[in-house]
Amino acid sequence: MHNINKITLAMVFGLAFSAHGQEATTEQADTSAQTEATEDELGLEVISVTATKRKTKLMETPVAISALSEAQLKQNGVNNVKDIANLVPGLDISTATDQSAPVISMRGVRSTNITELGDPAVGVHLDGVYSPRMQGALALMYDVDRVEALRGPQGTLFGRNSTVGSINVISAKPKFEATYGGVNVEAGKYKSRVIDGFVNVPLSDDFAIRVAAKGLQRDSYLEGYYDPNQYDTRWLSDEVLSAPVISEDSYQDIGSTVTQRENWWIDAAGTDPEAQKVRALTPASKDNFYNNADEYSFRISTLWAPLDGNFSNHTVFQQYVNRSGGNIDLVNCDKLRGRPAEYGGDCNNLLPSDNTYQAVVNVPGELNLDITYLRNTLNYNLNDELSVVWLLGYEDMERSSQQDSEIGLDPWDGAIYFLDGTGATSYSTELQLQSDEYGDLIWIAGVNYFHEKTTTLGYYDNAMDDKAFWDQPDRSTDALAVFGQATYNLSKDLHLTLGYRYSDETKEDVGGRTYRCSNADGCAPGWFGRTILNDLPTDAFEDPSIYPSYFANDNKGSWTHHDFRVGLDYDISANTMVYSYIASGFKAGGIGDVYEVVNDRTGDTTRFETQFDPEEVLTWEIGAKSSLLNNSLNLQAVFFYTDYTDMQYASVGSIGNVERLSSVEDEEGRPILDENGQPVLDFQNQPVIAYYTQNVPGSTIKGIELEFDWKPYAGGRITGYATWTDAKVTEDWITKWDYDPEYLFNMSYEESIDPTNDVLTTNLNGNNMAMTPRFTANVSYTHTVNLGNYGYLHGWFNVNWKDKSYTTIWNLDKHLDDMDFVVPDEATTYMNDTRDSFAMVNASVKYEPLSQGWYAEVFVNNASDELVQYWNNTSKGIGKGSFGMPRYYGVRAGFSF
Questions:
Q1: Which positions ≥6 away from 441 have C-beta within 8 Å?
Q2: Where, by residue number, does the polypeptide cross the bilayer (predicted)?
Q3: Is 20 a residue whose pLDDT tops 60?
Q4: Residue 245, class by beta-carbon neighbours within 10 Å (0-12 exposed, 13-18 middle, 19+ buried)?
Q5: pLDDT tens-digit profile of 229-240?
Q6: CA-closest candidate to residue 618, choices 638, 643, 601
């Protein structure tokens, strides 16, 4: 509870501070207010947005954009950017567990490289300032004015990495009118506890401060176990290591996991007889296991707007801290259910129970994420016709983590660690010159500079053999851009928009090293040296000086690009407009990793580089917006067509081969032992494994998006959207098949990752893009009952439906006839990359007294308890990945003052 207590203390301090605040005596125009009440009780509020980097009305802005208020976010249980996925047409957000980062997909476009080498395809901005690392998008969302989600290329105004859209989280600004605030609390399933609040204090007529904070704690919703039968037991407690013996030896078909029943190494792996016995699993405590939550954040913002001055200055300082167990891949037991033993069996053969929400590990999860933000926006009026806007942003992220990799599904044990010192620091500045909004020509011009330096310190530990340590002290990005956009009134109702941006981006790795450690070079304890390994401390391989060799990653790449936008919009009437534009978007290429691999037999060194090209989009869009029925119904409709070139696709695979001194294996994949019980070693042609990015030659994406917001009567409201999207690879993409080739082709690991293996050559032309359902729909209905003097009762019901889709770009079921899979078609249905359609139901009932000074609410999210997979990887016939949270319910309450 210590984090929740910190938030409580912050609020108490804020309240005490507010007692000394000076109430404003002069009313001022609120520069941050984004909603204006209408006189008609049935009329919808007028929402203003900043999609064009100036304040415009949502229904008069010629861009496909969704604006979400804080009330909507709270109603839908939103805690961070990841939770808004179902609220925006064409948006899908998953989690890459190894990097503890969200992966945002919009209109079929996403980035699969969320390491320091990759960039997102959907830019995330906080108060208009770009946030480069996707981990930063996980920062708790609280006391926000609104969230704007722009769809389509935003290359002209927002620039880099807004290839297909942009998400802008806009925090609530301080106000001058009065001292006020609010506190909200939530308690729910899995011992969830949430508290958030804010206080607004005007210190004078022209200076105000706002303090806001939020804390979130929740037990894990997983059925977790610690396994003493895995190779590396250094992290396990004595209680786990002394669990009851269930078998004196492996291969007795005793136990519920692979590591209990089939540890082929256990008889020879060490000298301690007690360590060779098969033991029971130990249930894990839910308060600190994977997929729990332990986060808090606070924000201090100030607004200075002198009454007799020509400027306003808004400053935001924010801190976000995450001390959870991190996330972990889970097995899709629903898809495996009923699979015959001859094809590998289902979760009953792999795990303690037939339940997706479970994990068996030997390395406890840990995530330490600290992010500091500083943002400043200065608006200065040069005269009645010109103004200057100056944006400054600074972000510092520090991260360390540890995560079990094979989750008990394979006797080959592994884990991934990121150490203290891993992080990223970035700063950006943008200077804009803007015209006023009253003439026939409205324009904006500016220059933007961005710098980021990332540092990575970590390693992958194959407990039995190889380790790879990454020491990347200085990977940097420098980006400079010059841009301009103007709208000219060709007539009273017809408007022409022209935009241009020049981008120059350089990425460089200075002093980067990848260190190597293995049994063959004497760094690791040796084959079957399990006893030796487990006598070592847990940090034994965190020192790069013990690694015998390394290869350098020094690399550099530069790219320039020209983006444009040409648009026309026409006001059919005062309440209806149509618009069309053609625009481009750009994401820079990457330097990738460099691999210098030594041939163990000859001593020769071979260098492999993994650079990749930029990706580009060109989109044509036509849309309409209309306010009907006395402004009680807002409709938005858009059709878009996107030509997508050189999409960046990242995956783990082989980039070449080299001779290595390694163990000789039998047909079962087990090392062959000599008369002394040691593995037989020989020089063998081994693949060079890398996490690298390819470019997909060409894809086409087209779709229709419809949004509606309707107040049919005084106490009712219906909102939602419906979409149709067709996103496919439309050019030949000849590549190596990388979707679980070991299982599908019944081949060895070495064969499965051999880039020269002709059996694996495939053409993915015609495949659907990942995480892009053909149809989606979302409908929310709110009904308010006026109880007279007793207050109000608000009922809310939401249904979100998504059609079936693919979780990867491989589309396994489309290749059953053109590839020589060894397993029968029936077996592929249990581990393919399809995601079934689903409907998720959410609901709440809230009571407010007549004064509306407080409220109490009961709610349920995912009432239908849908199992939804968002990220997919598959090995040895077992599909796994990240999944949405199961049914969650609770109560909320709050008060304002």
A1: 435, 486, 487, 488, 489
A2: none
A3: no
A4: exposed
A5: 999 999 999 999
A6: 643
Q: 792: which strand partners?
A: 786, 848
259/278 Cα distance (integer angstroms): 9
CB crowding 425-448: b at 16 or more within 10 Å, else e: bbbbbbebebbeeeeeebbbebeb
Residue that is written with structure tokens 């009313």 in the block: 27
Contact by Cβ (8 Å): 549, 599: no
Is residue 124 classed as helix, strand or coil in its secondary structure?
strand
CA pair distance 258, 248, nearest whole angstrom? 16
Predicted pLDDT of residue 649: 79
DSSP 294: E
Name the band, by pLDDT with cuts 50, 70 and 90, for residue 70: confident
Task: Report CA dihedral (762, 766, 769, 770) to the nearest 10 degrees.
Answer: -50
Of 100, 70, 283, nearest to 197 by C-alpha is 70
Q: Give the HSE-up count for residue 216: Cα atoms under 13 Å, Cβ half-sphere.
A: 22
State the SS3 of 534-547. Answer: HCCCCCCCCCHHHC
- How many Å apart are CA 346 and CA 341, to the nearest integer? 8
How many Cβ atoms sit within 10 Å of the Cβ of residue 382?
12
pTM of the model: 0.88
* 753, β-bridge pairs: none
Distance of alpha carbon 318 from alpha carbon 323, whole angstroms? 17
Is residue 396's pLDDT more than 90?
Answer: yes
Higher pLDDT, 147 or 42: 147
Does the CA dihedral 223-226-230-231 come out positive or negative? positive
Mean of the per-residue pLDDT values of the chain: 87
Q: E strands of 610-668, at which residues? A: 615-628, 633-663
Q: How confident is the model at residue 656 (pLDDT cuts 50, 70, 90)?
A: low
- Tens-place pLDDT, residues 612-643: 888 888 999 999 999 999 999 999 999 999 99
- Using CA atoms, how far residue 130 sits from 101, 157, 506, 700, in Å, is 16, 12, 17, 27
| Cα–Cα distance for residue pair 328/365, rounded to 1 Å | 8
Contacts 24+ apart (CB under 8 A), 486-490: 486/441, 486/442, 486/443, 486/444, 487/441, 487/442, 487/443, 488/440, 488/441, 488/442, 489/440, 489/441
Geometric angle at alpha carbon 600, from 594 and 602, rounded to 5°? 100
d(CA 773, CA 703): 11
3-state secondary structure of 767: coil
**Residues near 694 by beta carbon (within 8 Å), at least 6 away in sequence:** 612, 648, 649, 650, 651, 735
Q: Is 195-200+203-219+292-328+365-896 a CATH 3.40.50.300 domain?
A: no
CA 360 to chain centre: 24
493 in Cβ contact with 460 (< 8 Å): no
364-375: average pLDDT: 95
- Domain range annotation of the chain: 48-172, 195-200+203-219+292-328+365-896
For residues 843 and 157, what is the distance between their CA atoms, to the nearest angstrom? 38
Question: Could you tell me which residues come within 8 angstroms of residue 438 by beta carbon, excluding any fewer than 6 positions away?
Answer: none
Grade residue 373 by pLDDT with cuts at 50, 70 and 90. very high
To which residue do tokens 């007294």 refer? 849
Lowest mean pLDDT among 11-20, 232-241, 265-274, 738-747: 11-20
Nearby residues of 499 by Cβ (< 8 Å), 6 or more positions away: 156, 157, 483, 484, 485, 486, 563, 564, 565, 566, 583
CATH 2.170.130.10 for domain 48-172: yes
Binning the chain into helix, strand and coil, the percentages to the nearest 5 are 10, 50, 40
Long-range contacts of range 44-47, CB-CB < 8 Å, 24 or more positions apart?
Answer: 44/627, 44/631, 44/632, 44/633, 44/634, 44/709, 44/711, 47/146
Copy the structure tokens of residue 661: 């001194």
Residue spans of beta strands (DSSP E) within 664-763? 681-710, 716-729, 734-736, 761-763
